[in-house]
Amino acid sequence: MGVVTFPGSLDDRDALRAVTLAxxxxxxxxxxxxxxQSVDAVVLPGGFSYGDYLRCGAIAAKSPIVGDIVExxxxxxxVLGICNGFQILMEAGVLPGGLxxxxxxxxxxxxxxxxxxxxxxxxxAGFEKGQRIIIPLKNGEGGYIADDxxxxxxxxxxxxxxxxxxxxxxxxxHDIAGLTNPEGTVVGLMPHxxxxxxxxxxxxxxxxxxxxxxxxxxxxxxALEAVLS
Length: 229
Fold this sequence. Notes:
The chain is an alpha/beta fold.
C-alpha cells in the first residue's frame, strides 16, 4: 500500500506505520513521480501540501502523481484521503463538494466521535453501519460545503461515510465528516485514523487512556473486503 509524500506532508510517516501495523507492505511514494510502484492501494496523508497556497490541496491536486492516481481510480484503485488528502481528492474532482475554513475561525484538535454511515466501502468494511468510533481530528479548514443539488445526491446515493457526533467541530453541512465515491473504492475524511492504530498513542477510551484503536480498522478493511469478495 502506497503513501504519498508532498512538500508539507506531516502525517505520511504515521500513515506508513498504520499500513504496516495492519499487515500490509508500506511503500513511500513521491509527489513528483509518475510511478505508483504497482501498489494495490494508496493513502493521501494529512499535512499542509505545498503550504496550503491558493487553497488547501489545490496545488497538490495538480501534481504528477495525483494525475496518475486519478487515472488509476478510474480502473478501481482504492484510495484513502485523510484531512489534507481529503482536500486533495475534492480539488481533483474525485469527491463532490468542498472544504472551507472552520466556521469558528480557529484550528481545532480533539478526539472526535463519528457515526459510521456507510460500511460497504473498501476502507470501511470492518465497521458496522451506525457504529460510533473515536478518531483524532486536527484541522483549520475542515468545514464541508456543497450546493443543494450535491447535498441531495451524496445523501440519496449513500456517499456519506461518516458524520460528526456529539459536536460539529467545524460547521460541516449535514455534519458530514467523510465521503466515498459511488464505487466505494475512494474514501476521504477530515479526522485522522492513522493516529488511532495502537495502544498508548490513540484517543482515550473507557478502558484506558490513549487506548483507542478504531483507526486501524480503516487499514485492515482493505484485506477484509478482499476476503469477503
